Amino acid sequence: MSSTSPGTAPLPDDIREARLRLARARRVVALTGAGISAESGVPTFRGADGLWRNLRAEELATPRAFARDPLLVWEWYESRRRRMGSVQPNAGHHALARLEARVPEFLLATQNVDGLHGLAGSKRMVELHGNLWRLRCLGCGAVREDRRALEDLPPRCTCSGLLRPDVVWFGEDLPAGALEQAFTAARAADVVLVVGTSSLVYPAAAVPEAAISAGAFVVEVNPERTPLSEACALALRGRSAEILPQIVGGAA
Questions:
Q1: pLDDT in tens, 53-101
Q2: Is 51-86+136-167 in CATH node 1.10.3660.10?
Q3: CATH number of the domain at 2-42+89-129+174-248, please?
């Protein structure tokens, strides 16, 4: 494995190797986590504003909390939605969209719920943890996207059923179809990019592990070392908004 130390720029040889591998690849998977969105200014659960009304995310993003007090949970989610409404995709998001456009078989598997990949133009994508801008009815099961400010909380469906954010809460399983799609693509991939994720949250963290076992060339892009770093073919230390455009190429 070739890598650089945390806090240092990737070696030019590493960038060239990653760029060459991507240029030759016909099957590519990108797994992204909170790091790529943090570079756009998306607040994290556990950052400086990880507390809201003295409550932690783990106390609010649960089925039990929603059943007990849907208004409180929706007030928290709506505050997040409004803070994120002006956040835009960064160069890393756009680089992955360009990569998708030129690779015959591509899949973006994201753990993020902010919808920034879609805004950047990504289409062949699975959102493992859902999407903050989608609402799902607990009555009829209808799902819709709504980026408007929600004035009447908690929101209701046209069938009068209670709407919830279409995201995966603590204690809930990831969508089985999306997870299996990510694993299937990773096992068949030539190159897998692991971008801005701690590689600590399972089962998503097992996706690059499956790719490595199947012989894929795995490239990690992260400012810090992770549990996956030693197993990667390349571990590129730095911001994804700077590194991804270098290894993908094309217009910035």
A1: 667 888 899 999 999 999 999 999 999 899 888 899 999 999 999 999 9
A2: no
A3: 3.40.50.1220
* DSSP symbols for the chain: -EE--TTSPPPHHHHHHHHHHHHH-SEEEEEE-HHHHHTTTPPPTTSTT-EETTEEHHHHSSHHHHHH-HHHHHHHHHHHHHHHTT----HHHHHHHHHHHH-SEEEEEE---S-HHHHHT--SEEETTEEEEEEEETTT--EEE--S---SSS-B-TTSPBEEEEEPPTTPPPPHHHHHHHHHHHHH-SEEEEES--S-STTTTHHHHHHHHTT-EEEEE-SS--TTGGGSSEEE-S-HHHHHHHHH-S--
Domain with CATH 3.40.50.1220 in the chain: 2-42+89-129+174-248
Indicate which residue of 93, 94, 117, 129 is catalytic: 129
pLDDT range class, residue 5, cuts 50, 70, 90: very low
pLDDT in tens, 100-118: 999 999 999 999 999 999 9
Domain ranges in the chain with CATH number 3.30.1600.10: 51-86+136-167
Active site residue 129: yes
